Amino acid sequence: MKWLVVALVFVLSSTMAHAESGKRPPDNPKWKKECGSCHIAYPPKLLRAIDWQRLMEGLDNHFGTHLVLGAGDNKEIFDFLQLHAGFRAKNSASSLRISDTPWFTRAHRKIPSNTWSDPAVKNRANCEACHINAGSGDWSKRSIRVPKAGEKAPHADGVHADAGKRALPPDNTKWKEECGSCHLAYPPRFLIAADWQKLMGRLGKHFDANAELNPKDNKEILDFLIYHAAYRPKYSAPSLRISDTPWFTELHDEIPNNTWSDPAVKNRANCAACHINVEDGDWSEDSIHVPGGPDGEKKKAWWKKHR
Ligand code: HEC
Ligand code: HEC
Ligand code: HEC
Ligand code: HEC
Q1: Closest ligand (CA of 75)
Q2: 20 to 30 Å CA-CA from 49: which of 91, 169, 195, 258?
């Protein structure tokens, strides 16, 4: 049986390597040099493409300084920022300051206000005052030290800024009603914003169904979907099917082929056939029951064996 163990270890380590590589921050030497000389080179994903565009067009008055970049350098940096920009409304601020975005405010809400004016911090844009390795692209919790002797760092309790969001899945009455009438209202986090936008742009021809909405409802639902959308490429598929995304395929590759065509499942998009509590937003492993498969301790081994 040794070969089986080896094979499993290989599968595990290869999926882990994949997850790691997805985390490596995007890099570009020109951007790092030009945009990292006065302050750290702020990660592109922390502002939306439109904000970066405005910022790059206004370099002659860049927060009180005058920047001059060659046209070639400007374009290279511009393209890099656009490619890796954030998607969500919460990563945007009319001041073009990351530190004014709703995302920033929320992620830093536990920091006492007098910390921001502490001489060691100076201001919110001075990320490196607390994110001590941000200069080398490391924004992890491990590398946060909030200055101020003796004070308990706000992250010391281990509560993640997103914890509330994860516990309570995003909700919107209109979305639930309109997008949950023919099938499960698929959670926004399973597709990237661009895919939701395409899908909502052609509801008249929605996978052989007509799901047309009035413009007002369409906009409300689209805003909701985009706000909570995924941002990694593995949550995207040209077919606009969640069940065709690399994320889905990888996660479900242990399910036996004949299970997908089982009358109790019908097809891959029928998530609730196996995720038995998703109507309540519960996608946890404890609430998975594959039709025809066992439950309890045995089920994991069964998923793997029937691959
Ligand atoms: C000559 C110095 C200098 C260079 C070079 C420079 N910046 Fe800035 N940048 C500043 C100053 C000064 C501020 C305002 C900081 C403050 O208010 O404390 C700023 C602020 C910012 C902010 C807002 C930060 C926040 O959340 O408040 C962004 C975003 C930004 N710069 C991006 C860039 C990009 C992109 C480049 C490269 C094209 C760049 N900067 C190059 C001086 C510079
Ligand atoms: C006064 C210290 C301080 C400054 C300045 C600061 N941060 Fe933070 N940041 C924190 C703390 C503390 C947390 C963790 C909050 C929590 O756990 O609730 C955090 C969380 C984050 C996270 C999430 C990390 C994770 O793994 O969840 C990111 C990303 C981040 N900050 C980016 C920035 C950027 C970009 C700037 C500058 C524009 C900045 N921070 C300025 C203290 C700071
Ligand atoms: C009139 C019925 C109907 C309504 C209303 C409807 N859909 Fe669908 N949807 C379908 C059908 C039919 C499919 C294809 C299912 C299949 O192939 O098994 C589908 C498939 C999908 C898929 C792809 C699932 C996958 O992974 O294969 C997504 C995503 C989706 N719908 C999102 C939405 C959203 C968002 C809304 C609300 C704006 C919505 N749907 C409203 C009928 C509907
Ligand atoms: C035939 C049954 C089946 C169908 C249909 C199905 N899944 Fe799954 N799903 C599983 C199984 C089994 C796992 C656990 C795989 C593993 O851990 O190896 C899983 C895992 C997951 C997980 C991770 C759960 C966790 O906490 O580890 C998510 C999220 C998920 N599926 C989403 C979906 C979505 C979205 C759909 C519909 C578009 C769907 N699934 C359709 C069987 C199914």
Answers
A1: 1
A2: 169
| Closest residue by CA, ligand 1 atom 18 | 125
Integer Cα distance of 288 and 295 in angstroms:
9
Cβ-based neighbours of 131, under 8 Å, separated by 6 or more: 138, 139, 143, 144
Q: Where are the alpha helices (DSSP H) in 47-170?
A: 49-57, 71-84, 102-107, 113-116, 163-167
Q: What is the pLDDT of residues 89-101, one digit of tens each?
A: 999 999 999 999 9
Is the model more confident about 82 or about 164? 82
The 8 Å CB, 24+ separation contacts for 55-59 are 55/96, 56/81, 58/96
Residue 148 is predicted with a pLDDT of: 59
Determine the residue of 103, 116, 127 to mutate for testing ligand 2's pocket, defined as the one with the most ligand atoms within 8 A of the Cβ atom: 127
Q: What one-letter code names the amino acid at 57?
A: E
Can you give the residue ranges of every domain in the chain? 23-92, 108-168, 169-240, 252-307
Mean pLDDT computed over every residue of the chain: 81
- Residues within 6 Å of ligand 3 by CB: 178-179, 181-183, 186, 199, 203, 206-209, 211, 221, 241-243, 267, 269
What the block records as the tokens of 29 is: 């030497």
What 8-state DSSP symbol labels residue 47? S
**Tens-place pLDDT, residues 65-76:** 777 788 889 999
